[in-house]
Amino acid sequence: MKLRWVSIQGYRSIRDIKLDIDDFMVFVGQNNHGKSNIFYAIDLFLSSGTRLITSDMLFQCSSESSCNEVVIEAKFDELSHAEIDKLGPWTVEGKLTVSKKYSFDADNKSQPPVYEAVMKVPKEPWLHEDFQDYKNKNIISELPITEFIPPSGQITKEIYKNAIKEYLEKYSEITEWIIEKRPNPAGFNKVLDGYLPEFHLIPAVCDANDEIKSSGNAILSQILGVIIARIASKNPVFQNLQERIQEIKKLIEGETPEQKLTEIREFEERLKVELSQWEVDPSIVIDPPEIEKLFELGTNLRLNDGIETSVNRKGHGLQRSLIMALIRILASETKQSEITENEEQRQRCHIFAFEEPEIYLHPQMCKATYESLKQIAVTDQVMICTHSPHFIDIEDYRHIVIVRKPNLEDGTKTHSIQDELFVDEEKKHFNMIQFFNPDRNELFFARKVVLVEGPTEKTILPLLAKRLECFDHSVSIINCEGKFNIVLYEHVLNAFDIFYVPIYDEDPIPPELE
């Protein structure tokens, strides 16, 4: 299952956005415009239904009545056979569309989310499982479904549910169906959370030690869990070890109370005496751990770069690269598990969201990291929010999402393009790939762009601006390497709706470039 579309309303800086989701996405924009809030909203949606919102998660608008709830809707496709079998009643043509509404009650107490699903349902209300008059035999007797209702006895919810099933099996071809959004479909929320993709949010500033723990939901713990489970299911040594652990349990407890180890029996007797006023009979019972759990005890990761130390003793760049490496391995291992294990061991799809992956990395490593993240997106989904031009590749322009916040009232907005930038113009496409480098990629982060012919203008204009005391760091000056290339940059800036001003002299332009 993969996330393909999301709508976010009323969350922090986001009043209302709708966004198509690809396997690989790069979010760019100025500071405090809401890039991270998109990630946090998706994280909220994909987290357990027991998670609640707080008042600081609400969009702050002038009309309080319309800003007291958060509504997040998402569409998924590429459901596996196991997911279709489990979620089939709530899907339409193999796709799942679900929304969660978070709100507060009259006492300003956060409430559990209300689920809704887009479903294909019979048009007739009496073919819905929530039909309120199912117990009324006078009404039921006038409906076609009466054919499948017992002639006597009380009509229970289960009886009516089975009657609907039998009716649809017999008359499905003549039944009129509609597609509508249904609130809280029966059993929906109990199943859904276990099948949605797993969302991994890697903050801009995070502690590598949190991800190399051998227990909990740390990345290393998840990898070890997959690997050890695979080994334990196939390796006879592991299987024998599990049997030995059971033998230790028998040795300590004994098959009868008299066979229990003397030291244990003596301790139980002393404890019984101490608790004599309570008339209880204490007993030591051994619950041997599963072999996989043994690796949570005392397992740690150390790095040797000439000196072997714990991870937190290494540089921040290496720590950041370690997290990236663990994520790549996790994506690979879970997919291998999905292929080799049966459907009961199905692994959920992963969505990895990175805040500023460029932190602590030098430029060459940024490019290598960008390529490795794209590789993860071959099997899973990857989202990046970045301030680095090294994480922009114009060849991947369809993956770029510009994030802006025009004003506080409108909130965060997004802009991306899916159309061809240069249709049937291979030369311009080649030039675009050739001319866009990290220096020129700066235009994707700028508030405004000035397009100039060459290095002279790029050097002189900032000097003039400083002399005139109107210099602005949020304005990028882009050297287009000649006036005839300015049109190419204008085409890209227009497509991404980035404000720009071209500056060039009045040399004649060849007719073919007009």
Explain what the structure shows.
It is built from 14 helices and 18 strands. The protein is of the alpha/beta class and 514 residues long. Helix content is 32%, strand content 20%. Strand 10 (302-304) and strand 11 (308-310) form a beta hairpin. Strands 1, 2, 4, 5, 6, 7 and 8 form a seven-stranded antiparallel sheet that branches. It has a six-stranded mixed sheet with strand order 9-12-13-3-14-15, with helices on both faces. The chain starts with a strand and ends in a 12-residue tail after the last strand. Among the domains are: 124-175, no CATH class; 227-300, no CATH class; 419-513, no CATH class.
Strand-helix topology:
Blueprint: E1 2-11, E2 14-20, E3 24-28, H1 35-46, E4 69-77, H2 81-87, E5 91-92, E6 95-103, E7 114-122, H3 137-140, H4 157-171, E8 177-183, H5 188-192, E9 198-202, H6 208-211, H7 219-234, H8 236-253, H9 262-274, E10 302-304, E11 308-310, H10 316-340, E12 350-355, H11 363-376, E13 381-386, E14 400-404, E15 413-415, H12 426-435, E16 448-452, H13 455-467, E17 475-479, H14 486-495, E18 500-502
Helix pairs in contact: 7-8, 7-10, 10-11
Low-pLDDT ranges: 342-346
Number of helices: 14
Largest sheet: 7 strands, antiparallel
Cα distance, first to last residue? 47 Å
Average pLDDT metric: 84
Q: Got a strand count?
A: 18
Computed CA radius of gyration, to the nearest angstrom: 31 Å
